[in-house]
Amino acid sequence: MEKRILIFLAFLSSLTFIAEGSFAQTNTALLSATDIKTSKTIELFNGKNLKGWYTFIKGRGRGSDPQKVFTVNDKMIRVSGEEWGCITTNKEYENFTLTVEFKWGTKTWEPRVKNARDNGILVHSTGMDGGYDGTWMHGIECQIIEGGTGDLLVVGDKTENFAITCPVATEKQGGSYLFQPDGKPVTIHGGRINWYGRDADWEDVIDFRGKSDVEKPVGEWNRMEVVAKGNDISIFLNGVLVNQAMQVKPAKGRIQIQSEGAEMLIRRIELTPISTQ
Question: I need a labelling partner for 241 at 20 to 30 A (CA). Which of 8, 19, 104, 145 fits?
Fold first, then answer.
């Protein structure tokens, strides 16, 4: 127990280093959940319907969802996962805290019936619907997947128009960088930065849980907060900072919520603008 406490205190100390050390070189201090100045919160989900959003299903296009992949019942959005696609906001957003409360359902679909439940939230999405693999608009993904919720992905067009810079550990994890607050900053234009506690033995199997997972078990509600100010992004999962990036490109755009083979329920989607004054 004493060893675990010392590790946790060391992690908190390293977060202070981010604000005062390596990220200070950019004159941009990344934010904590308690020090942001905000204005009135916007309900992006009204609990009744998908007003303010539109559907895009791979192979079907915009506004065509005959399989009812995205539905609203009992004040919740149900993402069935049956077909690949997303709901996308009509408007673009920048400088905000996005709060999403979600939990996994039990249903999974081919070709991921036995794989880890997988969806995600994309922010700063720009360009054409389906621009990435005919499925999603290009953007920055805040991953929601069993064992990997909190990963940051660049769902880009392989150009410098889409990028994130994160401090990372010296050694990669499964071919991807691992977020480490006091690590050396690296910039990627594709791929992912794993959240700090991702299990080194992660497997793409259903019901996977890592030793240090912050995400709650299947059937329990989780809260993800994406804090985006200027060119910075911080991800909080159930109140814990799990990943951060700076020099994010682009810095504004639409918001997408994915369907990628697993049932997921969402009861809250709120956006609170962050004052830049």
Answer: 104
Q: What is the distance between the terminal CA atoms of the chain, rounded to a whole angstrom?
A: 44
pLDDT of res. 29:
39
Asked if the model's pLDDT at residue 19 lies above 60, the reply is: no
CB-based contact 217:205 (threshold 8 Å)? no
Check residues 15 and 254 and name the one with the higher pLDDT: 254
The region, left, alpha or beta by phi > 0 then psi within -120 to 50, assigned to residue 212 is: alpha
Q: What is the C-alpha to C-alpha distance for residues 147 and 242, in angstroms, rounded to an integer?
A: 12
List the one residue out of 80, 228, 61 whose CA is nearest residue 140.
228
* Range 199-205 average pLDDT: 97
d(CA 130, CA 118): 18
Per-domain residue ranges for the chain? Answer: 31-273
CA-to-CA distance for 40 and 46, rounded, in angstroms? 16
Q: What is this structure's pTM?
A: 0.87
Report how far residue 15's alpha carbon sits from residue 234's, in angstroms, rounded to the nearest whole number: 12
**Fold held by 31-273:** Jelly Rolls (2.60.120)
